[in-house]
Amino acid sequence: MSSRVKLTIQGLISSKTQYNTYALVLGDESRKRRITVIIGHAEAESIALQLQNIKTPRPMTHDLMLNALSGFKIELVEVNIHHFEKGIFHSELLLLSNEKTLVVDARTSDAVALAIRASCPIFIEKDLFDQYSISLDEEEKEAEVVEEADQATYEEPSLEELEKRLQHAIANEQYEEAARLRDEINRKRNPKDPNQ
């Protein structure tokens, strides 16, 4: 197996320029170099809730997937970021079941959301990390990003913002996202409703 670098989550930052987009900051254990993975709102929310140990009334998608794997006695052993193409990092899940291993292709955002739930390590191929990571000494602006990223926080959107996102999703025929936003709006309006 080629040389790899172990990564930790160092931040989750809302994009000021791209609607519904977040930067997931992953760095080596020395915290001297890092990569940024652009992810969507749903994945950012899933990662943030787990980082902050917030339990949702019903299982989210990544909870459901991990519960299903566990039910079939399949263990998520590790996540490996192995390829970069057209601005996108590609990842694999290494699964173990009855002493058999299976490698499954996954989006990096989903892979990280599962990894933090399974408490399994996240790796990146060393040549990829060397090529695409940024040293904290390379840019003066990085210091500002580091301060924000190290907090690893996630601001929950307001009801007004969620309603705007819902209208945007409907207008763009993103019906799965619209349904998720509708449910989130209903949870905010009726926080004690056990059916939400």
Main sheet characteristics: 8 strands, mixed
C-alpha geometry: globular
Strand line-up of the largest beta sheet: 6-5-4-7-1-2-3-8
- Give the rounded overall mean pLDDT: 83
Structural class: alpha+beta
How are the SSEs ordered, and which strands pair?
Elements (H helix, E strand, L loop, with lengths): L3 E11 L6 E8 L4 E8 H11 L9 H11 L3 E11 L2 E10 L2 E8 H11 L3 E4 H7 L1 E2 L6 H8 L9 H13 L3 H15 L7
Parallel strand pairs: 4-7
Antiparallel strand pairs: 1-2, 1-7, 2-3, 3-8, 4-5, 5-6
Helix pairs in contact: 1-3, 2-3, 6-7
What does this protein structure show overall?
With 196 residues, the protein is α+β, with helices and mostly antiparallel strands. It has helices spanning 41-51, 61-71, 108-118, 126-132, 142-149, 159-171, 175-189; strands at 4-14, 21-28, 33-40, 75-85, 88-97, 100-107, 122-125, 134-135. Strand 4 (75-85) and strand 5 form a beta hairpin. Helix 6 (159-171) packs antiparallel against helix 7 (175-189).
Characterize this entry briefly.
With 196 residues, the chain is an alpha+beta fold.
Features:
196 residues; single chain; 8 strands; alpha+beta; eight-stranded mixed sheet
